[in-house]
Amino acid sequence: MFSAVTSPDFKIVDETAEYIVVDKPAFLLTHPTKPNQPTTLWKELRELLAFEIANGGQVSIVNRLDRETSGLVLVAKTTAAARRFGLLMQEHRLHKEYLAIVWGWPEWETEIVDAPLDRQGKHQASAIWLKQMIHPDGAPAQTEFRVEKRFTRSTPSSSPAASRLPLPEGEDGGEGKAEFHGDKFALIRAIPRTGRTHQIRVHLASLGCPIVGDKIYGPDERLYLEFIETGWTAKLEHQLLLPRHALHSSKLAIENGQQWTSSPPAEMFAPLS
Question: Radius of gyration (Cα) for the chain, nearest Å?
Answer without folding.
Answer: 19
